[in-house]
Amino acid sequence: MTSILHPPVEGAAFDAFMETSAPASHDHRQWQPTDDSMPALYLSHGAPPVFNDAHWMYQLFGWSRSLPKPTAILIVSAHWEAAPLALSSPSIGTRLVYDFSGFGRRYFEMTYQTPDASALAAQVTALMSDLEPVHEHPSRGLDHGAWVPLKVMYPYADVPVLQLSMPTHDPDKLFRIGQQLRPLREEGVLIIGSGYMTHGLPFLGRESWEHNAIPGWSRDFDAWAAEALAAGRLDVLADFRRAPGMPYAHPTVEHYTPIFVTFGAATDPSAPPTVVIDDFQMGLAKRSFEVA
Q: Which residues lie below 8 Å from residue 122, measured CB to CB, with a gap of 6+?
C-alpha cells in the first residue's frame, strides 16, 4: 500500500475527487427555515494528507451530503488557542493559514475563497455578549483545522465560514460557549468543533506513519471515548486526563477539548451522538460525530 504521506503524485486523489464527486455539491439542497436545526459536529480534521486519501474524502463529503447545505459555518479549531475570545476575519475570500510543515508545496498554494461572513460575525458577537466580549481579528484567516476538511465537505467554497478561537481547555467553560452559540443552529448554521480524537504525534512510530499501525494508547483512548459517547456520559468525557492511553493520546489537549463546544451546542447534551467516522489513519483515531 502506498503511504498517503508519499503518494506518487501529491493531491492526485483530491484531483480525482474534484472531477468525479465534487460536482454533486452543486445540487446540494440548502437548509430552509422549515427544516430541523442543523446538527453540531465534532470533526477529526486531518492535515494535507487528507488530500491523498480517497477513503477519508469519501467519508467527509458523504457526511456533508447527508445534511442540508448550511447557511454558514462556525468552526472552533484546535489550531487557534486565543483569549479573549476572537473571531477570524469575516471578509470575502479570507486568507488561509498554512500552519503545517513538511508537506508538498502544492498544499501551501491551495485556496478556499469563501463568501462574506459579516452577518454571522454579528450574530456570534451578540450571542456571546452576556458571557464574554468577542474580538474580531481583522487579519486572522482560516487554519488547516478549518479549511482542510471544509475544502472536501464544501469543495466550491460556497458557504460563509467563520472561525472562533478556543480561549480555554476547561470543559465547563467550553460547554458554556457552545450553549451560547446553540441558537445559531436554528438558523441553519453548522457549528463544528474541529480536533482529532487521538493526537499523540510524538509517540507514533514508522509503522503508524507509513502503514497505519494502531498504538495501544490510541486504540485504548478511542475505545474509552466510544463507550462514554454511546452512554451519553459527558461527565466521563470531561474527566479525560484519567482516560486509558493518556497522556500519550493527547500530550497536549487542544485536539480533544473542542468536543465540549459541540456538546454545549447540543439540544440534549446527554443524548448519545451519532458517530459518523470511527476508523484510524496513521495510527490515530478519526472518531467524529454529530449531535442534534
A: none
